[in-house]
Amino acid sequence: MAAQRVFNLQQLTEHNSKQDCWLAIHGKVVDVTKFLEDHPGGDQVLLEVAGKEATKEFEDIGHSKVAKELVLEYQVGLLQGHKHSDPDDHHAALDDLKETIKVVGKEMTGFVIKDDVQQHALTRKVFGQLFDHAVPLAVVFALLWYRFSPLFSEMMN
Ligand code: HEM
Fold this sequence. Notes:
single chain, Flavonoid 3'5'-hydroxylase protein
């Protein structure tokens, strides 16, 4: 994975307009400028938290898995000093762990699927070529056998 740029709160605060809108969600700094118009919840809610830590607002809505994955697409870096979770807050710690597993799992599944697809493509190619030649060859052999087999039997006798 490429090294992430780290921004502090001051730097985050500078990106607080419609033309340049950043937020921080779960320690990830996201540039949502290009997403403002596409956000299903409207641009206004995003502009209200522009340049701010918006994890609570993001979680309060109960965003879907799709939304959580979209955050990764808009991520431009990490927020300096972000504490992943309070070690005593077991629910938050578990959520963080789940999120990490999801991200790592997604990357691994992506790799396995890709590998699998390549393997299938190769198998299809080999069998495809075999069938391409095997079928016409079988037809030719059958015709030859049909035409010459009485001759062969006569010669043998
Ligand atoms: C990068 C950040 C964000 C992404 C990618 C994102 C994405 C989405 C998506 C995909 C939906 C559709 C519903 C769903 O799939 O959950 C949605 C709905 C919504 N979002 Fe966001 N969102 C972001 C940040 C925020 C923030 C910070 C707020 C609040 C301050 C917010 C408020 C809402 C609201 C109010 C809805 C509408 C919910 C509804 O109609 O039921 N979003 N968002």
